[in-house]
Every structure is written in C-alpha cells, then in structure tokens.
Design a protein that fits this description.
alpha/beta, two-stranded antiparallel sheet, 19% strand, Rossmann fold
C-alpha cells in the first residue's frame, strides 16, 4: 500500500456521510505527523488535523509532579481533556455554527498552544495522531471507541530510532543526549505503544508509505516524524 492508497482510503472515509475520525498511532519517531499532515493536505477542506501532542502537560506542571524527565509517557498528557475534545468533535453537527478549537504542540517552544486549530462542523474528516490512541489503560481507553478507523504506523526499528535521534538534535540536544533520550524515555514509551497495534484496523510499514505522490513535500531524511 502506497501513500496514494492511504489518501484514497481516507477520502473514502470522509465520503461516508457525517463526521468521521481517523486515528493514526505509532511509537515516537514512527512518522505519524508527516503521514497525517500529508493526508490532510491532500484532502484539503475535507479534512482537518488535530494532534494528541496538543495535550502535553506544561513543563512546569511536569516538574511539580516529578515527571519532567519522562515527558512523552502516557501520564504526562491531559488524556481526559483529549477524550473530551474528541467527544465534542465526534458529536459536532455538520450544520453547526459552533467551532470546536483544538490545541497544538509547538516543538520549538516545547509547549502546547491552546485553541490553535479550528474544527468546523462541515469538515467531514478529522484526523488525529499520537502515540497512545490505542492504549487501553490510564484513561486512554476512551480514545479508541471514538475513532471510526485506526491505523498503526510501524517502520523498521532502526529507521525509527535514527530518525528520532535526528529530530532531538534538530531541537537542540547534542548527539549523545539525543541518543540517550531516544534509547531511554522514548524507547520505554515505544515498547508500550508496540503492544497496542492489534487494536488497529490497518498496520502500515515504512515500505508501505513512500513519500512521493499527492504533492506531499518531504525530504528523504525527514519523510516521517
């Protein structure tokens, strides 16, 4: 299955009538963001992207909870807020004049920005992506029932880890620190995420989703984030 096939599958989901939610899950560095962005761009005004990462707890909150060194773990997100947002999105009437606003995570700031993504009722497909969409513990079990379709992105492990290290370097870590975080905190999260793939409707490998068609611009190195 290539990227064009994934776009067409998403387009078909958007054409079923009413609101549909597509979830794209996977471990850190699997490529969820780039795949989700590519599909949303290809579908234009028929889709909008809402990310789980917008629900990262603030660094100050994580520090007060003693979880700053585990940022990215399941208990470092406002999972209940995320579920409430998806519930509002799922029940939003097509003719509603009320706009649902979603937060976004800014990697440069390493912080979430509230009310940054408007979701209008007449947009048939909402795409959401994140690590823990298929996790059934710690409050995350409320997410999967809200997804009309769930995909799990599973590139080769060495590709995922190398990509993750490069991402950490781009956002300020030196190579050794980037590698330590990728093989430490990130890897523990990745091992947990890997156990959830059975709940997906579709499992996608790197070979299944080359970045070429659909006008999706991405370099060979940063194809999937």
């Amino acid at each position: 299955m290539e990227l064009n096939d994934l776009v067409e599958r998403a387009r078909a989901l958007a054409s079923h009538g009413g609101r549909r939610i597509l979830g794209i899950a996977g471990a850190p560095g699997a490529g969820k963001s780039t795949l989700a962005e590519g599909i949303a761009d290809a579908l234009g005004d028929r889709a909008v992207l809402v990310t789980m990462d917008g629900f990262h707890l603030a660094n100050s909150v994580l520090e007060s909870l003693g979880r700053r060194d585990r940022k990215g773990a399941p208990d470092t997100f406002d999972v209940r807020g995320y579920v409430v947002l998806l519930t509002r999105i799922a029940s939003q009437p097509a003719d509603s004049e009320d706009v649902v606003y979603a937060p976004v995570f800014d990697r440069e700031l390493d912080a979430s920005i509230g009310s940054a993504i408007p979701v209008h009722g007449d947009v048939p497909l909402v795409i959401t992506e994140g690590n823990y969409l298929l996790l059934d513990s710690g409050g995350w079990g409320g997410v999967r029932p809200l997804l009309d379709e769930a995909w799990f992105l599973a590139p080769p492990e060495d590709v995922r880890v190398e990509r993750l290290i490069r991402r950490h370097e781009r956002f300020g870590l030196d190579h050794e620190s980037a590698r330590a975080w990728a093989l430490g905190t990130d890897q523990r999260n990745a091992d947990l995420v890997a156990t959830t793939s059975a709940s997906a409707d579709l499992v996608i490998t790197l070979a299944d989703a080359p970045a070429a068609p659909c006008g999706v611009a991405a370099s060979a190195e940063d194809r999937f984030r």
